[in-house]
Specification:
- The termini are far apart.
- The protein is α/β, with parallel strands linked by helices.
- It has a domain of 127 residues: 2-Layer Sandwich (Fusion Protein Consisting Of Minor Coat Protein, Glycine Rich Linker, Tola, And A His Tag, Chain: A, Domain 2).
- The longest helix has 34 residues.
């Protein structure tokens, strides 16, 4: 009896071990079935991916692209020879052509002050009288000498009024008289158009017979050079002292007659 009890105990333990393991296996299978039976939440439908259009392989042509040209090889810079600083020179300017080179102007030595040209002096009155270019008609001849009445009432009276302005009473000239005419010579043979006319010069003479002021041209001969000669002759004229006890100077007038050869020249 002592030998059978342990055998039964071991067999009972083995049977209990298998029975417990089988039970766990069944429970596990039942749980998996339950989980598999539970409906899962529906997922949002995923849009279908675009499918590429099928291309017939027979229509596909293989195109060979031209190969890109190879870039030209860049020149390898050669090292420039070093030049000493003492040999560096400025670039030369282009020399002008022989035709563009103008000959140098001849140098003129400075003339000494004594050899410099001096301006010509103005012509004297006698030189002007002998110069045909000096005879230009001035259109101022009035021919007043021929009309004695007009001469006294207009020309002489206006002249005396002008001479009396701005002077003291003792210097106001009184009316004088007509003196001998001045004979002006025409020294060249050139004919003038028109011929010279008779002029008139007025002088203011003191009681002692001296000129108080320069003579005045009252009427022109028509040519300035002949008028200037008449004024010069009146300036060199000698006048007689006044008679009586007249303290004031006198105003005289002198006709001007030009010695012009009207026979050789037409009027």
């Amino acid at each position: 009896m002592a030998m059978t009890v342990p055998v039964n105990l071991k067999a009972g333990q083995r049977s209990l071990r298998w029975s417990g393991g089988g039970l766990l296996a069944l429970v596990s299978i039942a749980l998996h079935g339950v989980l598999l039976g539970v409906p899962l939440p529906e997922a949002e439908p995923t849009p279908p991916a675009p499918t590429a259009e099928l291309v017939d392989p027979a229509t596909v042509a293989v195109v060979r692209l031209p190969s890109a040209p190879k870039p030209a090889a860049e020149p390898v810079p050669q090292p420039s020879p070093t030049v000493p600083l003492t040999q560096v020179t400025q670039p030369k300017e282009a020399s002008p052509s022989p035709q563009a080179i103008a000959p140098p102007a001849p140098s003129v030595p400075d003339a000494p002050p004594d050899l410099l040209p001096t301006p010509a002096p103005p012509q004297t009155l006698d030189e002007r009288l002998r110069d045909p270019a000096a005879y230009e008609f001035n259109q101022r001849a009035k021919g007043l000498v021929a009309d004695e009445v007009t001469l006294l009432t207009t020309v002489i009276s206006d002249w005396l009024e002008t001479e009396a302005q701005g002077v003291s009473d003792s210097d106001v000239p009184g009316l004088g008289r007509k003196l001998a005419p001045l004979q002006v010579t025409y020294p060249i043979a050139t004919c003038l158009t028109p011929p010279p006319a008779a002029g008139l010069v007025g002088v203011i003479v003191s009681p002692m017979g001296q000129l108080v002021k320069d003579p005045v041209l009252l009427d022109s001969t028509g040519y300035d050079v002949l008028d200037d000669k008449a004024l010069e002759m009146a300036r060199q004229q000698t006048f007689a002292p006044a008679t009586g006890s007249q303290p004031n100077p006198s105003a005289h007038w002198l006709p001007v007659e030009v010695q012009y050869d009207t026979a050789s020249c037409p009027p």
